[in-house]
Structure formats: structure tokens, C-alpha cells
Amino acid sequence: MKAPPDMPPVTWETADTLVDYDAAVARMEAHADAMARGEAGEMIWLLEHPPLYTAGTSSDPKDLVAPDRFPVYPSKRGGQYTYHGPGQRVAYVMLDVGKRGRDVRAFVAALEEWVIRTLAEFNVTGERRDGRVGVWVVRDDKPLTALGQSPEDKIAAIGVRLRKWISFHGISINVEPDLEHFSGIVPCGISDHGVTSLVDLGLPVTMGDVDIVLQQCFDKVFGPIGDK
Questions:
Q1: Active-site residue, from 46, 64, 188, 205
Q2: pLDDT tens digits, residue range 134-172?
Q3: Model confidence over 69-91: pLDDT tens digits?
Q4: Which of 18, 162, 157 is nearest to 83 (CA)?
Q5: Residue 86 and residue 69: Cα distance in Å, rounded?
Q6: Which among 150, 162, 187, 192 has a CA at the least distance from the CA of 172?
Q7: Could you tell me which residues come within 8 angstroms of residue 27 by beta carbon, excluding any fewer than 6 positions away?
Q8: Helix, strand, coil % (nearest 5) of the chain?
Q9: What's the average model confidence in pLDDT over 176-204?
Q10: Which helix (H) or strand (E) is 130 found in, with range?
Q11: Cα–Cα distance between 39 and 24 in angstroms, integer?
Q12: C-alpha 155 chain-centroid distance
């Protein structure tokens, strides 16, 4: 998913207030359409949403445990139900996947790698799991499961959509959200694993810390061909 050497640098923008979900989607779609017309460049938009649930294209209504708790937004991204809220870093990723290899699986794997490298900078080992999109952390500090295994908690979600090979939506990393808010859904349709955050893992990490590392690690995964 490396960029060709002649592609302009990716633009980064960080919202300093909570962003309404519908407004965010409208802006993403407008930017993706402008990119497809050759009128805009690639962009990463870092933000936080007010507390809400989103229903991806594979969501199952029974996984919405508390439908009246927070606003619920249908979403055209892949995946199932997710929670967004303050303390969670959302990175909306508007990239030209057509110019970066036209490989959707490689793109999703690159997003996972971006998150894993970011977590590693905070000495957190993020891992992939077959059949479970997102990034997971093994909790050796918790009691073993009934099967005698260490429990696993989800720390980052991934959900993207491509239109004309332009991506939008993206990733979310739990920095310091209210983890109890996840109890209103079955996150990503998986009921036998928990949810965690960097602060829940005992790390005094700020959103600004995460933003700096996200940009550094993005360049390593998505930068120009030839960059390591």
C-alpha cells in the first residue's frame, strides 16, 4: 500500500471539537468524490465523536443491546456495530487505493499494521485474529477463561468503504473512552471477548501522544515506495 514516488504528501487534519457523525460522513463522501475527480488529494482526518453507535453493512439487529442509549447511525462501511465517543481516536482515511495497488485485502492489512505499529510505540502488543477484524490485546493480567486461555480484549476497530478505489471511514483506537459505553452493543458481533484502551492498560497516554505516533507510523506503512 505504499504510495508511488510522484504522489503528493497526505494532508493531515485534526478536529479540536467533537464532530457530528452525519456531518463527518458528508464531508468524507464529498472529499472522496473530489479525489475521484482529481480535484483533491489524499487526507487523514483525526477526530472524536459524541457518544454514538454505528451499524455497518453486516450488522445484526440483535447485537444492539440498548437501542435507546445513544444515537444509532446506519453506516455504509464494512463491519457490524461499533461505538464511538470521547476518548477514542477516530482516523478517517481518504486514500487513493487505486494508485496504491488496487488490493482491498492488502489495504485492510496495512491499516491493521498501522495500528499495530502505533501500539508498539507504547509497548502494547497488538495482534490480528483470523475471523475478527481489528486489533486485539492478550490480557495476561486477567484470570484465565473457562478454556484455560488468557482473555483477549479489542483495542482498535477497522471499518472502511471504497468507492471508485477511493477509501473513506477508517480506524478507531481506544485511548481513554468510557468502556462501559460499549455494553450497549455486542461490539463487532463478538460477545466472548472484551474491550480495552491504552489508559485501561495502565498507560498515561494522551490523545496528542497518539496523534504524533499515528503520523510517524503511517509514513512507515503508507509512505512513498522505497521508504521503510
A1: 188
A2: 899 999 888 888 778 888 999 999 999 999 999 999 999
A3: 999 998 888 778 899 999 999 99
A4: 157
A5: 15
A6: 187
A7: 45
A8: 25, 30, 45
A9: 87
A10: none
A11: 19
A12: 10
Spatial distance between the Cα atoms of 111 and 1, rounded to a whole number of angstroms:
9
C-alpha to C-alpha distance for 140 and 201, rounded to whole angstroms? 11
Contact 125, 117 (CB under 8 A): no
Q: Are 170 and 90 in contact (CB under 8 A)?
A: yes
Task: Name the pairing type of β-strands 72-74 and 52-55.
Answer: parallel
Beta carbons of 160 and 76 less than 8 angstroms apart: no
Question: What does the DSSP assignment read for 10-36?
Answer: PEEEE-SS---HHHHHHHHHHHHHHHH
Give yes or no: 188 in active site: yes
Q: Which residue has the cell 503528493?
A: 8
The more confident residue out of 120 and 1 is 120
Centre a 10 Å sphere on the Cβ of residue 61 and count the other Cβ atoms it contains.
8
